[in-house]
Amino acid sequence: MSSAEIAELLGARHDNVRRTIQRLALKKVIPLPPAEEKPATGGRPGLLYHVSKRDSYVVVAQMSPEFTARLVDRWQELEDQQAARPAIPQSLPEALRLAADLAEQNGALRAVVAEQRPKIEALGRIAESSGTLCLTDAAKHLNVQRKWLLGWMRDNRWIYRREGSARWLAYAPRLSSGLLEHKVTVIGLDDEQQDRLASQVRVTPKGLTVLAQKLGGAPR
């Protein structure tokens, strides 16, 4: 698959796809694919990479993981087209190479499925929820112990307690990024005392998504 076709699938600029490929190759995550200069309507010709199936998964996962399913569909279309023109191995080395290629493709697809499974499970849990969740309900949705979740959120600077207070508060960056919210309620007292305000940390659907992805290996 060409780098231009990957760009079209992602709705991204072709030069951004090329830079991602070059950066991954520089880090030795993928080998630098073969390239050719494509004709351009104006200016100098552009560079076009021809990316293998396995490496295309890596590129798409780096740029836009949510488009992996679209890439799988496109590869299926290409393979269906190829199946209409079957190439029968003419020698033992060709047959062995074909078997190796099929094994590599199956391995790449299994790796993509394994990578996407925590995200799919997270989205499934979030689909069952609505609005914001208290910390106890968030722990239930994430299938972890409440005490463990509070410890993780504290250690990773999601929530904190003021000295001498038993109430959890959200760190400002978590509020501004829409991961957590503060719900303020009025606690009514008797006639001789004034009402007072109480603040409760709530986890938003966006925050639950991030937590589910980060806690994929958390103890249950």
From TrEMBL:
Keyword presence, DNA-binding: yes
Signal peptide start and end residues: none
One Pfam family it belongs to: Phage_pRha
Location of the Antirepressor protein C-terminal domain: 112-216
MF terms in GO: DNA binding
Highest taxon of source: Bacteria
InterPro entries: Ant_C, Phage_regulatory_Rha
Keywords: DNA-binding
Protein name: DNA-binding protein
